[in-house]
Here is the input.
Amino acid sequence: MQHRVSKPSIIINDVILICIMAVLAGCGLIYEYLLSHYAGRVLGSMESAIYSIIGIMIVSMGCGSFFARRFVRCFTVFAWLEVSVALLGATTILIISALIGYSHLLPQVVADHYNIPVNLTFSEGATSVLVKASMLLPYLFGFFLGFLLGMEIPLMARIREHYYGQSIQHNTGTIYGADYIGAGVGAALWVLLMLKLEINQAAALTASLNAVVGLVFIFRFREFIEGMKKLIIAHMFLALMVVLVYAYGGQWQARMENMLYLDEVVYQQHTEHQNLVFTRHSVTAFQPDIVDFYINGNLQFSSMDEHIYHEMLVHPALMASARTNNVLVIGGGDGLALREILKWQPEKVILVDLDKQLLNLFRQPELKMSDSLAKRIRQITQSSLSHDNVTLIAEDAFLYINQLLRQGQRFDAIVVDLPDPSHPDLNKLYSVIFYSKLKTLLAGDGVLVVQSNSPYHAKSVFISIGKTIKASGFSGVEQYQQNVPTFGQWGWTIATPLAISPRQKIVQSEHQLPKVSWVTPSLINSAFEFPVNFYRHYDKIEVNRMNSLNLYNYHQQAWSNQGGYSLQLGNE
Here is the structure.
């Protein structure tokens, strides 16, 4: 027997190896979360991207485990492996951002270089293929990173056996125990710390931890490692990259992602929940700049025509409501629906939005934005979020309404201005149980209105929302539409607890419309008209319940097929 396990030096070294394995497991899990979180923002389907990335990385880890058997010098290979993992973990998101950005920009670059029209550089099909291929990069890099991570456990097992000079009993169990515990700590760090950081800073910090344990390994076991000088140089290069990514990664990524937008990006911020981007386009010296606002790459509003959307969302509901003193807003953290509600001079408005950073950004834009952009945002919102009668709640609306119910709150009108149900987490906010709770919060003669996607491009989504609201207990449920140029034909659902037609309540309303720029009573009344046979497939469309994901599936189907046309229930 070459070594005795009881020797203090051997025990200390073994403890170091086990701790190294635990730290690397935590780093590996954070790399998985970072990449899947970023992929969800880029690809627009958070849940699908997360599951796909993690699944691909698990499979590739298995491939890496098999591949690790090919190496003989396990100490040297493990040392180089950790440098590679840390370097790839720190830079992957920047590399993907650059490649995606340049794939979108390539046709324009070629056109500028050869001085030819951009539409002659690539066919529409070739450009589409190039863009779609770039969107697969998160999965490709996930495979590479998972492959390297999968090599760690087999190599560590061989390192321990090599160091002891014999096959160690319970070797695999000890390593996997350290791996599981380390992964658990990594998950806790992700939730408590990494989610609050800019994504490149989180990657850099994780890579630095990866690099530190790699250095501990090569210095502690240098007698078994070849090429120490090259490894030291590699770690110096890694340290430089980590510092640069931490300090400038966010700026670099923002510039790369700016290539994806048609107009100049004037502000970008990663919040704990989403990526916020503002672009600006100058029209003439006599007109204010057009500001567009994106969340995770999806347009939320354009200052050119957002008034159409928000006036159509708010004013029909408040005209139909018996009173307008007490209003609840779900979503609408940009304050634009609130701006229209305040024209009715309510006594109290409660606005509930999940993203506190988004609320703060629109409430006090001057703290984050340039003076000119902040001034333009205040012009658009009319400082609605700072109004004395408004209470802002940064909570999950699905949970917060339970608190409102316990308090016995009642509202004259409820305005639901949520993002489209493009994510399973949003599905619950379009469910029967959610709407039934809103019905309990609503006064008997009050009105609920819900933004309901496009009746033209996503007819199944639009109709399902209406059916779901009706299934939740609302008796008077109707839908209406209007064209919003930047979105196309858009729709809303309006409902009353009693079996009274909201449209009829609007016609008979004694309320006077406040000063608006678009809607009129006649325009609102005509918005309830739909083409013949529009509801032809009404009975085939499912109600959306808490765990059914019907609406989410309808949304994915509608917006992924033929640029938004549903194959089954489209414009038939």
The chain has 20 helices and eleven strands.
